[in-house]
Design brief:
Layout (H helix, E strand, L loop, with lengths): L5 E6 L6 H14 L4 E5 L6 H5 L5 E2 L3 E5 L2 E5 L2 H7 L3 E4 L15 H10 L3 E7 L7 H8 L9 H5 L3 E5 L3 H9 L6 H9 L4 H29 L11 E6 L5 H13 L5 E8 L9 H13 L3 E6 L3 H11 L4 E5 L14 H8 L4 E5 L18 H25 L5 H19 L1 H19 L11 H49 L4 H12 L4 E10 L4 E10 L11 E6 L2 E6 L5 H66 L7 H33 L7 E3 L5 H8 L7 E3 L7 E3 L1 H18 L7 E7 L2 E7 L32 H11 L3 E6 L5 E8 L22
Helix pairs in contact: 12-13, 14-15, 14-16, 15-16, 15-17, 16-17, 17-18, 18-19, 19-20, 20-23, 21-22, 22-23
Length: 853
């Protein structure tokens, strides 16, 4: 079945008109004859939005009962049965009421898409998971409902519903967003101009990144190499020299002039160039680039200008930053430098040459590679020029020189040419020199006849020595090239390993580096999953760039990692010396696959081990702590039913009270066990709301019974509201107070107090008991842990474990501290409730309701 398409309306803040636009699109498609239904839409009481519902079919909502209250949710099954062409589903980040098939609404939408139904939805930028914490820092309001970025990024269409902060505030002032009694509070808190401007910028930048990814994919699919200046991308070339920091900061300033630009640093490791870069200095420069928000890349290339420009064009760079040449003035006679060659071939890319203190101070430390074509040409030219000059000079020497001197002079020429041009120019010089010596200086002269045997031997030895010397020079150059190439490959492998160790997703990061390093358009690691007599079945494990092949043989190059794993590359054929390095990377990728699978197996085994450990502790607890109240209750009931003893009314009442207390204790223990099980399974329902702490304390004291009279409560009236689940926060405090009562001296009961710190409210339960040693403070929160206490009357050791688990489920925490003067203080931290229509924390007023888009 063809998968449906997803269209998302993205807004910067509530009230910009996402739902209105979504309904408008539904009306437009309905007018064209498309089958459109409303799966779920929330108008928030806005008149103009409600008017857009007219004429659209509405699938009735499903009613869900939870904790004595009724809630409405989208009826997913009804929409699937109705099977429209398009479904309108509002509030993409919404969390479904417990008991629904899926936890999140975006998961419901995934089912609709899988069924071939197109979906139109809406979401605010603050609900995206990757920037949820950034929004909280800007607005001071934590967002409980989030949606993974990948869900929104995978949408077929994303449309930004944009509005200036001033226009949105005017819309609110006119009563088009919130009710009149909420407008002033909203404008003075969440909807301040600064908050709205920051949220708007986040929405624009996030969407720009998504558009840019689509543009890059389009360019790769259509083989577009020219630069499209849709967005500033600044590439800075690093050599590992001391000037690197200057170049990076200069490039960062260039990028900062245009909002939303990218900074990319690249180092070219080559076999005949700058292979002697300082690894420590490159690592420092990489850290600097990443601290400035850029990314570091490394490519291998024998031609540095070509490698730089290939990388820059592949990344659609608009500007390239290079350092001024470090070569001396005299070295310019050997040819243009990297900067000149890069400028000449840069095309649409602007090249900046940045001056620095190291200019003109000689080349970087480097290993000479194999002899280039230019060196060989220079060797042939030197051979042609040097031989006639040397022959003329020796001829002018006349009778003062003999044949031995002539041979040695030409042998020196052969060595010089070999040092400049290598083997073949030296052999040409040796043969030509032997002919010149034979013709001009060997009797009889002016002929190629050799009259004496010793002269023939001398010429033969001359040619042999010249060939041996030139061969040694050429072999040394070849060995140097191999060593330099190996150094470049090692540097590239270490960079790849560093990328993974720095926290990048292992396989995708490795494949992306392979693609960049060898100038490929795509890289994919494929695994053989099945094999029959006729064909093999392969599946991709991870990929980078643009991959269009479904089998290894459809790529331009395939390098096996092992029998069932192949690294497939697209873009060009690999050279023989490149396959060795790619082979090492393929083996590294195979090791990563094995490592990830071992981690997954370990992760699957860990819960089993923890569960086994918990099961053992539970059985131990059942053998002692659960058995005691059960035995006590059974003994009391058995005694009451016995006909052998006549019980008085007071004795019967005492036995009934004992049975009742034992059963209550047993009920509490079972409830704790069930809640702990739900916490560990991650299915404990949590419904937080703004509430005052003094609403909780009376219920805590009531649950403690007579012991509650020993508790001292000192809650400041100015304490802000907290964001918590009323039932759960009551159990947290009750468990902590009960634990404090157990260890407090009779004459001095525990103290419960509270204070605010930033956007957090701290509740302290203070006792004057013996305290807990620091090394045991983590252990007390483990289930069934009582630090060696064997008294069965104190419970199974679930109170503190449950208190911490419940607090963390409400985005809070429980931490132990020393009480000054002796004892233990348990600190419960929970978020303060700060919303657009609630008073600022620290005021006495306790009324208000929340609202959302």
């Amino acid at each position: 079945m063809k998968r449906g398409q997803l269209r998302v309306y993205l807004g910067a803040a509530p009230g910009v008109g996402k739902t209105y636009k979504m309904l408008g699109e539904g009306q437009r498609r309905l007018a064209r004859g498309t089958d459109v239904v409303i799966g779920f839409v929330e108008t928030h009481g806005r008149e103009h939005t409600a008017e857009m519902l007219e004429g659209l079919e509405l699938v009735p909502r499903r009613i869900v009962d939870y904790r004595g209250a009724s809630f409405t949710e989208m009826d997913l099954d009804a929409v699937l049965r109705r099977k429209p062409e398009v479904a309108l589903v509002d509030e993409l980040a919404h969390t479904n009421v417990p008991g629904s098939r899926n936890e999140k609404r975006w998961q419901d939408i995934e089912e609709l898409l899988a069924a071939g139904i197109d979906v139109i939805s809406a979401v605010n930028i603050q609900h995206l998971e990757s920037i949820n914490d950034v929004v909280e820092k800007i607005t001071g309001v934590p967002q409980q409902e989030t949606v993974p970025d990948r869900v929104v990024r995978s949408a077929d269409q994303i449309e930004l519903v944009d509005m200036t902060p001033e226009a949105l505030r005017r819309r609110m002032a006119h009563g088009n967003v919130y009710a009149a009694d909420k407008i002033d509070a909203a404008l003075g808190n969440y909807f301040r101009v600064g908050n709205l401007s920051a949220l708007r910028e986040l929405a624009l930048l996030w969407l720009a990144d998504r558009v840019d990814a689509g543009l890059q994919q389009y360019r790769q699919q259509h083989d577009i190499d020219s630069t499209w200046e849709a967005r500033e991308r600044v590439v800075v070339a690093l050599t590992g020299g001391a000037e690197g920091e200057t170049l990076i900061r200069r490039a960062a300033r260039i990028m900062a002039r245009s909002s939303g630009g990218d900074l990319l640093a690249v180092h070219v490791a080559r076999s005949d160039g700058l292979t002697g870069a300082d690894p420590k200095r490159l690592a420092e420069q990489r850290s600097l680039v990443e601290s400035l928000g850029g990314t570091y890349h490394q490519v291998v290339g024998d031609d540095v200008p070509a490698a730089l420009l290939t990388f820059a064009k592949a990344e659609n760079a608009t500007q390239l930053v290079l350092g001024g040449s470090r070569r001396s003035r005299w070295s310019a006679i050997t040819g243009p430098g990297i900067g000149s060659s890069t400028i000449r071939d840069s095309g649409d890319i602007d090249v900046h040459i940045v001056t620095h203190s190291q200019m003109g101070r000689g080349r970087l430390p480097r290993l000479r590679g194999s002899l280039s074509r230019r060196r060989k040409i220079q060797g042939f030219v030197l051979s042609i020029v040097l031989q006639p000059i040397l022959a003329l000079a020796l001829d002018l020497g006349g009778d003062r020189l003999n044949l031995t001197s002539d041979v040695l002079a030409f042998l020196l020429a052969v060595v010089v040419v070999a040092l400049v041009g290598g083997l073949w120019p030296a052999l040409v010089t040796a043969i030509g020199g032997s002919l010149v010596i034979n013709y001009f200086f060997t009797p009889p002269t002016r002929t190629f006849t050799i009259a004496e045997v010793n002269n023939a031997l001398a010429l033969a030895i001359f040619v042999l020595v010249a060939a041996l010397v030139s061969s040694v020079v050429d072999r040394a150059a070849r060995r140097t090239r191999q060593a330099a190439r190996s150094a470049a490959e090692s540097e590239t492998l270490s960079t790849l390993a560093g990328s993974v160790l720095r926290g990048e997703t292992a396989l995708p990061a490795l494949l992306e580096r392979v693609r960049e390093a060898f100038g490929m358009t795509g890289a994919c690691l494929m695994e053989r999953v099945d094999e029959d007599e006729l064909t093999e079945v392969w599946r991709p494990l991870a990929s980078a760039g643009t991959m269009t092949c479904g089998r290894p043989e459809e790529g331009d190059a395939e390098v096996p990692a092992r029998d069932d794993l192949v690294l497939v590359l697209q873009g060009r054929q690999l050279a023989a010396d490149e396959r060795r390095l790619v082979g090492a990377m393929a083996l590294y990728a195979a090791a990563l696959v094995d490592g990830e699978r071992l981690e997954e197996a370990a992760a699957e085994a860990k819960p089993l081990a923890e569960a086994d450990k918990l099961r053992t502790a539970l059985l131990r607890a059942v053998g002692h702590d659960l058995r005691s109240p059960l035995a006590s209750a059974k003994a009391s009931v058995t005694s009451l039913r016995s006909d052998d003893v006549e019980w008085s009314e007071s004795e019967r009442a005492e036995l009934l009270e004992t049975a009742d207390e034992s059963l209550d204790r047993l009920s509490r223990l079972v409830d704790n066990l069930l809640d702990l099980s739900r916490l560990q399974a991650g299915v404990l329902p949590v419904f937080t709301r703004p509430m005052a702490l003094d609403e909780v304390i009376p219920g805590v004291l009531t649950e403690l019974g007579d012991d509650g009279e020993r508790v001292v409560v000192d809650i400041p009236h100015t304490l802000p509201l907290i964001e918590a689940d009323p039932a759960l926060i009551e159990r947290v405090i009750a468990n902590l107070v009960a634990n404090a009562l157990r260890y407090s001296p009779p004459e001095r009961g525990p103290l419960v107090t509270g204070s605010s710190l930033g956007d957090t409210v701290e509740i302290r339960v203070i006792d004057r008991g013996p305290g807990i040693p620091r090394e045991d403070r983590d252990r007390v929160f483990a289930p069934f842990q009582r630090l060696g206490d064997t008294d069965n009357t104190v419970g199974v050791g679930l109170g503190l474990a449950l208190a911490r688990g419940l607090a963390e489920a409400m985005q809070g925490s429980v931490q132990p501290e020393d009480t000054p003067g002796g004892g233990l203080t348990m600190v419960v931290s929970v978020p303060a409730a700060v919303t657009a229509d609630l008073p600022v924390p620290g005021t006495r007023e306790r009324t208000g309701t929340t609202s959302d888009d």
